[in-house]
Q: What sequence folds into this?
């Protein structure tokens, strides 16, 4: 059975967007050469990606562009080469190597997990992550904690759950990466 991971940038108070739905405060984050190298290594992991519609459209608008290739060549290469899935009822994907998930999200992901292949990472896509977490399909959560407090907003967790720390890493720029497994 394949593993399902959630990768999300969150504020120190646990939100992936502010109360108005803007993710700029969490996604912008701080960067330094060490953190950029870590991100590049993560993007080269060879796994598959799963997006909700909004995140997919943001990613599709940036990663296939010359600007992305110039700014973050390793990440752009990994993002463009990866097999991608998008959960949407309203769009047809056009980004190379992207497949539309049909029908019920939870059942579609159960099917993916039961198939052969590498791990699948939900990238961003907080509402997709929340639905899959509630269905107990998530094997691991990896959070980049950005040193900003939003006060209110949206969280990846629609219900409470216990987590066990698997790994942690602190970067000089102030970002902290923590990896948890559900208990």
A:
């Amino acid at each position: 059975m394949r593993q399902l991971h959630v990768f999300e940038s969150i504020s120190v108070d646990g939100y992936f967007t502010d109360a108005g739905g803007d993710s700029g405060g969490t996604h912008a984050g701080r960067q330094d050469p060490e953190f950029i190298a870590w991100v590049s290594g993560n993007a080269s992991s060879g796994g598959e990606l799963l997006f909700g519609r909004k995140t997919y459209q943001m990613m599709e608008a940036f990663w296939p562009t010359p600007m992305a290739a110039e700014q973050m060549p390793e990440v752009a290469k990994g993002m463009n080469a990866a097999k991608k899935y998008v959960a949407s009822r309203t769009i047809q994907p056009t980004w190379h190597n992207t497949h539309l998930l049909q029908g019920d999200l939870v059942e579609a992901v159960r099917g993916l997990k039961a198939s052969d292949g590498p791990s699948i990472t939900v990238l961003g896509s907080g509402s997709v992550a929340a639905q899959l977490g509630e269905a107990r399909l998530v094997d691991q959560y990896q959070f980049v904690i950005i040193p900003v407090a939003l006060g209110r907003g949206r969280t990846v967790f629609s219900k409470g759950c216990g987590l066990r720390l698997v790994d942690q890493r602190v970067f000089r720029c102030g970002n902290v990466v923590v990896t948890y497994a559900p208990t």
